[in-house]
Amino acid sequence: MDLRAPFRKDPTLKRALAWGLAAGLLTAAFTLTLPNQYTSEILVLPKSAGGGGPLAAFSAATGLAGGGGLTGIMEDGYHIDIVDSRWLAERMLDTEFGFTYRTWYFGELQTRKETLAVFMKADSPRKREAACKKLHSWLAATRDLKTGVLRIRAEAPSPELAQHLANRATDLLELALKTRIQTQGTAKADYAKARLIRAQQEEDQARKALVAFTEAHRNVGVSPDPAVRAQGQELGATLALRQQITTTITLGLEQAELDARSTLPMLSRLDEAYLPANKSGPQRANLVLAAVAAVAGLYYLWMNRARLQGSIKAIEAARSPRPGT
Question: Do the Cβ atoms of 288 and 28 come closer than 8 Å?
Fold first, then answer.
């Protein structure tokens, strides 16, 4: 089979291929001006305090300490929103990193130690806004709904920078979780303290009522009057209930104060961020092939537009019903 036969029959095919190859060469030259991209990932598991002992159990029952602190976080699943937040991006920009970097494919290897804002040239509010958006495109977080494992992925034009970004994003996520737990613990502790004072007052009132009744009815337990026995039992049950409420609120207050002062790690790192050895982008070969195919196809269609229009009209005429049929 002669591969040159189609080109001899249709000269526009040869010119289209030439234009496509020229576009491919230009695309290849352009992609060489782009720095390589490297990807690093880290796997973390948010810790649950479901087994936090009696304090967590009592606080879960009363709602004073959020079911043991971190259980609420596990149910909320807002970790991805924190990674994508402006709060995290701003702190990432103000963090200093040390890394190596090439400005283009054949560029000289540079060693830098600077903040991410300096590296991204975010020296004005408008540029800082653009830097935050670009940083969000570098960072991605996904969560497995079955296991709860969070995968934080960082892509940057430097292998060391990609590793640093993944680690720093994880550190900031843990800081946000810890701050939230401590803030909630402080608020709940303040509420529990006020509620405990009222519960103690109600317990004292129930105790005084029972004492006054037993003094007036010495033999309340064996009284022949059923109304006296029933009232004595009711007052005793009320006191027991008030004592139980006071105990529960006290345990909830203890759990809330522990959460407010918690220094425990909020995340368990299953796999540390690695230093990537191979680039993840750009896909230069795919870009070149796409440019060749697109330019060659568009040129060929443009040069043969008259023939294509005639073919379309012939197909429409064949489909349209003939007169008298």
Answer: yes
Sequence-distant (≥ 6) Cβ neighbours of residue 93 within 8 angstroms: 115, 116, 117, 120, 122, 128, 131, 132, 135
Min mean pLDDT across 47-51, 125-129, 195-199, 240-244 is at: 47-51
Prior bond of 282 cis (ω within 30°): yes
Give tens-digit pLDDT for 52-101: 444 454 444 444 444 444 444 444 468 999 999 999 999 999 999 999 99
Q: Nearest 5°: CA angle at 257, between 186 and 54?
A: 130
Under a CB-based contact definition with an 8 Å cutoff, are residues 37 and 156 in contact? yes
Rounded to the nearest 10 degrees, what angle do helices 86-93 and 125-138 cross at?
Answer: 110
Say how many Å lie between the first and final Cα of the chain, rounded: 46
Are 12 and 134 spatial neighbours (Cβ–Cβ below 8 Å)? no
* 323 band by pLDDT with thresholds 50, 70 and 90: low
Residue 94 tokens read as 């103000």
| pTM across the whole model | 0.72
Q: What distance in Å separates the CA atoms of residue 313 and residue 318, rounded to the nearest whole number?
A: 9
